[in-house]
Design goal:
alpha+beta; two-stranded antiparallel ribbon; 2 helices; 17% helix
Length: 175
């Protein structure tokens, strides 16, 4: 019995030691690709509100909405462990909606033209909330659309109304 307890304790120490071992660059690349993967499709999502949570390494993959001071407000707050930026469409009108893209970073073609990569495009009528986590933590790239309505249109398919749309921990979740 004592021997089994020592073996279990030894395994726990090994597991704990392995958990604190830094990830290799290849492991990080694979984890980033897994989290980004569900966003790399030609998809449009229309919604009232959007929450995007990410660690800083994904910042180049998440576009930030353009603003017009006459129709929008922007508030940035330092919170415990993250920075949150909130864009609000004060008019609530579709013509003043925000566009946010998540996907491959744009590239310049040989012709000099700006070419967007594979991405999911969100059109948000009321509010976009972007949470960028700081410090050492698990890689994160999540998006959740809601706010009264959610319409999803995948390439080649007409728009479909759904109760919610989320991509969490590399998995697409829609009812």
């Amino acid at each position: 019995m004592v021997h089994q307890a020592c073996v279990l304790l030894g395994l726990a120490v090994v597991v704990a030691a392995c958990a604190s071992t830094p990830a290799t660059p290849e492991q990080v690349r694979l984890a980033e690709r897994r989290l980004l993967g569900p966003f790399l499709v030609a998809r449009e999502v229309g919604c009232g509100e959007l929450l995007v949570e990410l660690t800083g390494n994904f910042h180049p993959h998440v576009g930030q909405p353009a603003t017009d001071k006459a129709h929008h407000s922007v508030v940035r707050e330092q919170k415990d462990g993250f920075v949150e930026t909130v864009w609000t469409n004060r008019t609530g009108q579709l013509e003043h909606a925000f566009t946010v893209t998540i996907g491959e970073t744009p590239q310049f073609a040989e012709s000099g033209a700006f070419v967007a990569g594979k991405q999911t495009r969100f059109r948000v009528v009321n509010q976009v909330r972007l949470r960028v986590y700081e410090g050492r933590r698990e890689l994160t790239l999540n998006a959740a659309a809601g706010g009264g309505f959610v319409l999803v249109r995948d390439a080649g398919v007409g728009p479909k109304e759904v109760a919610s749309f989320a991509i969490t921990d590399g998995v697409l979740k829609t009812p």
